[in-house]
């Protein structure tokens, strides 16, 4: 068990959120839930998403998520990017920019190809800047366009 576990405070959508997240990513499961009484709503939960342990609580309307916190999803292929992106959109997420998308519960996700990280770690600052400039023009990240910018720099 990791010493540090992200803890998410939802308004009242915890049950819907954990069902959605654990259905979306492999290596995900709901580990424990606590309810108010036998039939009451879920008040807290422990779950994994993509192998990462999370804890969460229904804390009421006082708690809101912001873009200052996001979850980063490493994607190996464009098909993987498209799959997650489309599943989020179908569930009511709002696309932002640069591969960022805010889901229907208010959490912001970064759907990012591993290839992007490789390209921006290049030693040539012109290539890195070209990739960054291309990324800034995108909503959903497109690997072939990032590579095109890299090779044309």
From TrEMBL:
- What SUPFAM superfamilies does the annotation carry? Glyoxalase/Bleomycin resistance protein/Dihydroxybiphenyl dioxygenase
Query: Where in the sequence is the signal peptide annotated?
Result: none
Domain PhnB-like, chain residue ranges per copy:
3-112
InterPro entries, alphabetized: 3_dmu_93_MTrfase, Glyas_Bleomycin-R_OHBP_Dase, PhnB-like
In terms of Pfam families, this protein maps to: 3-dmu-9_3-mt (PF06983)
The organism's place on the tree of life at top rank:
Bacteria
Kindly provide the name given to this protein in its UniProt entry: VOC family protein
Q: Which organism is it from?
A: Leptospira ognonensis
